[in-house]
Amino acid sequence: MNVRTASSPIGLHRVVEPVGVLPQAADRLDPSPEIWPDEVRVRVERLNLDAASYRQLAAAHGGDGPAVRRAVLETVRRRGKMHNPVTGSGGMLVGVVDEVGPESPHRLPPLRLRPGERVATLVSLTLTPLAISDGLSGWDGLSEQVPAAGHAILFGRSIVARLPGDLQVPLALAVLDVCGAPALTARVVGWHLAAGELERNDRAPAVAVLGGAGKSGSLSLAAAREAGAGRLVGVVPNDAEAAALRAAGLAEEVVVADARDPVGLAAAVGDPVDVTVVCVDVPGCEGGAILATRSGGTVVFFSMATSFSAAALGAEGLAADVTMLVGNGYVPGHAEHALRLVRENAGVRGLFTSRLASEQGSRS
Amino acid sequence: MNVRTASSPIGLHRVVEPVGVLPQAADRLDPSPEIWPDEVRVRVERLNLDAASYRQLAAAHGGDGPAVRRAVLETVRRRGKMHNPVTGSGGMLVGVVDEVGPESPHRLPPLRLRPGERVATLVSLTLTPLAISDGLSGWDGLSEQVPAAGHAILFGRSIVARLPGDLQVPLALAVLDVCGAPALTARVVGWHLAAGELERNDRAPAVAVLGGAGKSGSLSLAAAREAGAGRLVGVVPNDAEAAALRAAGLAEEVVVADARDPVGLAAAVGDPVDVTVVCVDVPGCEGGAILATRSGGTVVFFSMATSFSAAALGAEGLAADVTMLVGNGYVPGHAEHALRLVRENAGVRGLFTSRLASEQGSRS
Questions:
Q1: Which ipTM was obtained for this model?
Q2: Phi, psi at B192, each rounded to 5°
Q3: What pTM does this model have?
Q4: Chain B nearest CA to A364, separation (Å)
Q5: Residue A346: exposed, middle, or buried by beta-carbon count in 10 A (0-12, 13-18, 19+)?
Q6: CA-based, 20 to 30 A from A97: which of A164, A182, B136, B335?
Q7: pLDDT digits over B277-332, tens only?
Q8: A308 contacts B307? CB cut-off 8 A
Q9: Is B21 in Cβ contact with A317 (below 8 Å)?
């Protein structure tokens, strides 16, 4: 009997230090390419750094692309995963399946994964064993999307999606990266609808999305409308984003406000809403989100720049009886839900493609 | 007309820098003793540092009491509030009302606050303007409870409770400090009960409390039982706490586990529970709490040592469909609820008094 049969579906066997913690909490993972029976090895094509992580790296290195690239390489080399030690966040990746272990659950329906198929990982890079083999030579360090060669490992319980054939890879990757947000937004709107029905009021829940013109924000607006939201407010930081969001037609009201300015934000939103969704990847948005939400309402924090203590103590300090959710990146069916929204909603698709084009343009 | 009439019920007028943020997010508040028309000034008698903050200070100074005292004094002097810059947390205080502004809502029912009454602040010290006048000379730096002289300011919307006459001040203060936890636990158990009734199952929600023998933990266990929980599991770090919790009779099952060890914790809890309440004030408990909770369940994080990104990415990495709540310290009626639990539940009262006695003893 081979010792390798003792792998764990959540990847405990790949944790190098400290021993016994989950891969996400680990300082260092073992990224060696030999797979255990329930694992899958993916040949990496592209990393998608999460927005908070990329923003931190770019700021720390003053926008110096080669320095950002060296920092990412050093993190992956040292930790065996792309886990930004400052923000605690990662991102996801796309690649081609190299080998599927004989005991991998991904062999089975509904996925039936086979070598040669292009997939995106829906678990964070913070817990995905990763090795880079090309020194990221195809990346200028100036964008979140990182062409890369190397390999990554999926555990038995790691979530993965086959890339759809009808969407370009960068678009599909960008959608899948944030697909937890629209799914959870839809669920929370559903809770408020059900509560309203119990109380026999006819008011559909009002929803505000901070960062409404962004990737997770535009998907969340579309998901909220589909789930039965009433008044929909998109909050954006400047006039250019306001114009883009108005053109996309995803919200009845589009307002310009700095989400870090609680009083200004609450004034811009106007009547407090039932659900506030925070999709802004800068620190300091907790107070404004709480202040913009009515008593009995819910704030969903998707931004990885959210501070737990600022949220907890901020609500207490405002005597705000709001339910605050940590935006869980996993909701069953989230990938299919988000891909469907992008396919069916021209407004969302337009915002994604113009954002991807400008990222591409800035890298020239 | 006096410029002083422009005060804000949430204290924006006391923010020195950066301008425009909420008091909790501010680097520095103005703690000057003159009150605005809607404010209350309190003569401070005692600070209660929150557990995560005190633990950090004690560790940073190697348990050197005078050094811890100097650090607290320096923070208050520099920031105009006791806001630990490392943990982001504070605590609360008790004192005697000195002056109630003519426009303070606390003059009105139900509180009808008057000078001379002893009160506890239920808003965090992280947003309470505070000045210390005695150099904390009565404190040895070796405990969370800090005898202190000075003054503090309450805003129009700051929550405050009159201290009950039938409980000793340190006991009442310790209860009020954590009173958000039992109130929110009761609410979440209620949600799961209602959801179970909708699904027509007869199963009362199973609840696990990490740190069940502690202050917020024991209150949360008592609140969960009263709210209709079924199986109740108290998780404690060692045999001494297990014996104390068993004697208190607050949980059917008392198990010893390190909450930072996800696999060990989940094994100790056994069948995944509907609701997990995290009351352990050490970092790294996110993964274990998620792993101990069934799909569709809820994790409530009360520990200020919780990492937002570890919770969000941990759930995603485990493909865990759990709802994760930021433990809001404010739920209407929370103070009365917690004080009633302590009065009516001898088990909770016993755990509190023995803990307070041992803290007292360690200061001799």
A1: 0.86
A2: -70, -35
A3: 0.87
A4: 32
A5: exposed
A6: A182
A7: 999 988 999 999 999 999 999 999 999 899 999 999 889 889 999 999 999 989 98
A8: yes
A9: no
